[in-house]
Amino acid sequence: MLATILLNALWVGLLGGILASLVRIGWQQVFKSEKTTKVEALSIGGGIFVDFGQGLFILISVVLSISFVVWANYDSAITQGSGTFFGLLVWAVLEQGVKGLMRQRPFFWHLPWQRTIVEIIGYLFWGWAIYLVAIGFPISGVYF
Question: Are 106 and 99 in contact (CB under 8 A)?
Fold first, then answer.
């Protein structure tokens, strides 16, 4: 039973994590700040660059999506709010807790409120996209 849940969570989590991370990245591209910082990027030729920061977020998103599907199989309370609660939880824990304590970024009260709202809405869409992919594939075991 556990092996079946994990195998199905790997497939659904992979698809959900990739889609959800692209949704969040796209949402944040709509609302760019005037000060865009340069990131470490690798040129693969033809004017195409690989952004390692966004690539890392895609990997983290896949892992968190797999954990969402497994968690939802055992406790459906995480699906309350159609996955938006999960997105808000990830924003609070990862973006504010871990990155704030490691001093990789300032806490939200040190940022303009507009940027905080855009980040929160991006994570709400992110969690919702994971939920939609999970309920779209019946093998995931996540239902309404």
Answer: no
**CB burial readout 108-133, b (16+ within 10 A) else e:** beeeeeeebebbbbbbbbbbbbbbeb
pLDDT by residue (tens digit) across 78-94?
888 899 999 999 999 98
Separation CA 43–CA 66 (nearest Å): 30
CA separation for the pair 56, 140 (Å, rounded): 24
For the chain, the domains span 8-31+40-140
For residue 76, give both structure tokens. Answer: 């459906």
**pLDDT band for position 43 (cuts 50, 70, 90):** low
Q: Is the pTM of this model over 0.85?
A: no
Check: CB of residue 13 under 8 Å from CB of residue 69.
yes
